[in-house]
Recover the amino acids of this structure.
């Protein structure tokens, strides 16, 4: 087994993609840039929505930093149990004169043979040194802040997959908010570029330690017949974690008969068997593979079935990695299916859920300095013009979109990325409308010149394709000069266009106008009527939902 482990690619990660998760920000939408989260439909769990709704998982999203009880006594175990003092060095044994003479000369007695044997493995077996307690230094950590995690927990564990549980999904504020605006969400693994370098380094370190533990485990088992193998601790923790992850998945699916078959595995018995070298990997992996094939989607079956070949070949590191990968994919498929099953419920209760969340947050008496400044200026600016508070909010909201210098208020924290995307989109609309407006002015002032150029170009296009078009670079620069000068002095025009867009959007959302096309033509924006109308429709969804959640707080503002 040591040879197989040594030949394993020791990159510390899965071969195709990293299996870490983001918090609510792990959710991504299929139609960016409107959101930043993640979710696809997958096969149904086989239970109705109400039964899934009652399912409860026992884990959380962040990597666990709880110390492992086995780690507290690790050094003591190695010094006292893993290296028993040979009988020849027992303090009660009588010492011969020949041996006394050897010891007085500083020569270890009868150590040459054992040193030669273990030199093949670069491990010097010196009984005279091992008679004293051994102090084993802790491995150098690439990241001190997460040492507990990378020493004993794999990169994918129950904690990192906790956000995929049904309970976490139903109480995920970010997901409950995003599902209102996005038609398709999907949970997905992070790409290598999205992974925190510290977590990546910790994962690589963890798998390198597993690789060494497997090699040392085989060495101690075959060479020294040790009754308390020092390399069993981390391996047993990995086996127990895999068992716990599968139980969490089965709890979501509510398969008690499958849960019983895997919960019968005793954690302490696994540790004891690993320490004594009697653990049978096939006895653990065979029922695991059978259960995974039952609950997984069909496209996951080939990789699950390949686990048996890895175990039979003794390639245990790759088998461990693939097991974690398959469990993660199964968990993700179940979560995605749950999102689709509960979509109607999540959307219909999103306003009440967010209002309750905000009311609970207000109990801590938070401060909103950016919001206070922004809303105060909106009241001072628009209260003389509008009697309804919602109209004042709409005008202030569109000022927020049209002026990138304004900071986004705290109450828009869930829509911050969406508002930034709106700002970029509306800036493009304004700039394009200014460009067309400048061309329109040029065409009105130079109709004959434009007609002459159009005839000239149409004649050239009828000629063979070998014609050089370099003349286009040296044509009359009058139009370029005009556009350059127009854009240089377009700040007032940009302000006018922005105000026109604000006026139209407020009238559209408030219902003051039914047909926006005449308004677009009146403001010379008819060319962009379709994209502007679509843009304002998306803006109205955000503004109306925001007002439904936080409207009472706006009205009560003093």
């Amino acid at each position: 087994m040591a040879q197989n482990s040594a030949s394993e690619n020791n990159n510390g990660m899965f071969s195709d993609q990293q299996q870490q998760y983001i918090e609510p920000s792990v959710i991504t939408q299929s139609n960016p840039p409107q959101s930043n989260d993640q979710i696809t439909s997958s096969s149904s769990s086989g239970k109705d929505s109400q039964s899934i709704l009652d399912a409860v998982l026992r884990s959380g999203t962040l990597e666990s930093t709880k110390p492992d009880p086995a780690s507290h006594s690790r050094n003591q175990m190695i010094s006292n149990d893993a290296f028993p003092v040979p009988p020849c060095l027992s303090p009660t044994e009588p010492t011969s004169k020949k041996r006394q003479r050897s010891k007085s000369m500083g020569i270890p007695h009868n150590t040459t043979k054992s040193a030669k044997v273990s030199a093949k493995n670069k491990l010097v077996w010196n009984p005279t040194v091992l008679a004293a307690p051994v102090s084993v230094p802790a491995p150098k950590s690439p990241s001190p802040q997460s040492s507990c995690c990378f020493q004993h927990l794999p990169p994918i564990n129950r904690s990192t997959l906790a956000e995929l549980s049904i309970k976490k999904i139903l109480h995920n504020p970010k997901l409950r908010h995003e599902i209102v605006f996005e038609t398709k969400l999907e949970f997905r693994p992070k790409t290598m570029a999205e992974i925190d370098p510290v977590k990546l380094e910790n994962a690589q370190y963890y798998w390198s330690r597993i690789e060494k533990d497997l090699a040392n485990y085989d060495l101690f088992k075959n060479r020294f017949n040790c009754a308390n193998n020092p390399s069993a601790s981390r391996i047993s923790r990995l086996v127990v974690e895999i068992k716990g992850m599968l139980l969490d998945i089965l709890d979501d699916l509510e398969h008690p008969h499958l849960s019983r078959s895997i919960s019968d595995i005793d954690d302490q018995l696994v540790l004891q068997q690993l320490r004594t070298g009697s653990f049978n990997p096939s006895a653990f992996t065979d029922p695991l593979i059978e259960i995974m094939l039952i609950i997984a989607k069909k496209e996951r079956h080939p990789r699950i079935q390949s686990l048996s070949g890895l175990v039979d070949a003794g390639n245990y590191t790759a088998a461990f990695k693939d097991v974690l990968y398959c469990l993660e994919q199964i968990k993700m498929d179940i979560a995605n299916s749950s999102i689709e099953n509960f979509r109607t419920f999540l959307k219909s209760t999103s306003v009440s859920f967010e209002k309750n969340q905000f009311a609970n947050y207000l109990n801590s008496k938070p401060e909103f300095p950016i919001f206070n400044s922004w809303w105060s200026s909106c009241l001072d600016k628009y209260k003389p013009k509008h009697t309804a508070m919602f109209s004042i909010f709409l005008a202030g909201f569109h000022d927020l979109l049209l002026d990138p210098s304004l900071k986004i208020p705290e109450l828009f924290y869930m829509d911050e990325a969406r508002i930034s995307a709106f700002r970029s989109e509306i800036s493009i609309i304004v700039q394009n409308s200014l460009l067309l407006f400048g061309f329109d002015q040029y065409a009105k002032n130079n109709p004959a010149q434009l007609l002459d150029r159009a005839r000239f170009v149409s004649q050239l296009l009828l000629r063979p394709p070998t014609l050089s078009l370099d003349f286009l670079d040296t044509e009359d620069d009058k139009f370029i000069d005009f556009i350059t000068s127009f854009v240089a002095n377009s700040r007032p025009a940009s302000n006018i266009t922005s105000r026109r867009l604000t006026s139209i959007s407020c009238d559209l959302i408030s219902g003051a106008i039914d047909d926006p096309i005449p308004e677009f033509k009146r403001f010379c924006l008819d060319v962009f009527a379709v994209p502007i109308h679509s843009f304002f429709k998306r803006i109205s969804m955000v503004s109306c939902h925001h007002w439904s959640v936080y409207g009472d707080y706006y009205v009560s503002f003093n």
Notes: Strands lie at 27-29, 185-187.
